[in-house]
TrEMBL record:
This is Substrate-binding domain-containing protein. SMART domains: HTH_LACI (SM00354). Residues 7-61 form the HTH lacI-type domain. Keywords: DNA-binding, Transcription, Transcription regulation. Pfam families: LacI, Peripla_BP_4.
Length: 351
């Protein structure tokens, strides 16, 4: 007589000498299983390389998970958010069969009222979760507080707010962003040579994110055992002509060997260099956008510190899939890799 070969949950239960219900509780991360039993079952699952048939379960249950995306809209100056949306769409193309529906709410990055209006729309929907970029910190805190009251889970992108309880934060480690920029400065200028840290149009990025970058920047230079010559300048305008006059006045009265721009608007400084034929000041900034790349290719930007928004968007939806459909645990914090893009390698960089 041939031996009966069992597979799947039944075989796991047989090997562990437990009931199928106990195996099911471990697979779905439910309580009620002794720690030693849970560890035994998990070891058997790993040994068997068992993977539940998630699609079959979804088809049987006919459950549809509804998610929303609340992030800035693409604008004429940056296509970063379009790349992130493409990443979400790429994940959706793979996961659509599992009963996932997404609604998109794209707000004006300079308009708090528009964010609040769209946030109210999201709160009026019957949703399981929302992916949100906390550009407006106070308004986002109010929004996620209401999400918690409605039992809507949420994922933060780009900016992790203290005292909030997201399912996960996915994005950069802003402190390490700043440290990396300072490390590059160490190789580009001597400690006595002036460095200008420029906060350009700070309303486009959350205050706490800029502060963390600056903290990391100062932390690294403070470890180098030298008195670095750091100057700070904030230019808060959405008009290039006003910015141009402010930077021209500063450079007329202050020697500068390197400019470090705290956000993605570095191409404004590069444009200024191009128009004023400045070639002796090093320039570092953030993000792989078409405007930044144009001046990187021409040599006016020396380094761009980047992450891959396509992967970030994909990771966000994949995290919701893992939590809601695969019933797996997800990490509270998922830092994205930090990349350095130059004139020599930007064509090879897939963002």
């Amino acid at each position: 007589m041939k031996a009966l070969v069992l597979s799947g949950v039944k075989e796991i239960a047989r090997r562990a000498n437990v009931s199928i219900a106990t195996v099911d509780r471990v697979l779905h991360n439910r309580s009620g299983v002794a720690l030693k039993t849970k560890e035994l079952i998990e070891a058997i699952i790993k040994d068997m390389d068992y993977k539940p048939n998630i699609l079959a379960k979804r088809l049987a249950s006919k459950r549809v998970h509804r998610f929303a995306v609340l992030i800035p809209q693409e604008n004429a100056e940056t296509d970063y958010w379009r790349a992130l949306l493409n990443g979400i769409q790429s994940a959706l193309n793979e996961l659509g069969d599992f009963g996932v529906e997404i609604s998109y709410y794209l707000f004006n990055q300079r308009d708090r009222t528009h964010f609040k209006e769209l946030a109210d729309h999201v709160l009026g929907r019957n949703l399981d979760a929302v992916i949100v970029a906390p550009v407006f910190v106070k308004e986002t805190k109010d929004f996620v507080f209401q999400c918690e009251g409605k039992k809507i889970r949420y994922i933060f992108l780009q900016n992790d707010l203290p005292l909030a309880s997201p399912l996960s934060y996915i994005g950069p480690d802003a402190f390490q962003f700043g440290r990396l920029a300072a490390n590059m400065c160490k190789y580009l200028v001597e400690p006595h040579e002036p460095i200008l840290v420029l906060s350009l149009r700070p309303e486009l990025e959350a205050d706490n994110l800029l502060a963390e970058k600056m903290k990391g920047f100062e932390d690294f230079l403070g470890e180098q055992g030298a008195a670095w010559n750091i100057m700070n300048l904030k230019i808060d305008t959405d008009m290039y002509e006003v910015f141009e006059a402010a930077l021209a006045q500063y450079l007329e009265n202050n020697k500068t060997n390197l400019i470090y721009v705290l956000n993605s608007q570095v191409f404004w400084v590069a444009r200024f260099f191009s128009e004023h034929q400045i070639q002796d000041i090093k320039l570092i900034g953030y993000d792989y956008s078409s405007n930044n790349i144009k001046y990187l290719e021409k040599g006016y930007i020396d380094f761009l510190i980047c992450q891959q928004p396509l992967k970030l968007g994909y990771r966000a939806l994949a995290t919701l899939f893992e939590h809601f459909i695969a019933k797996k645990g997800v990490s509270r914090t998922q830092y994205m890799p930090i990349d350095i893009v130059t004139k020599e390698n930007f064509k090879l960089y897939k963002h």
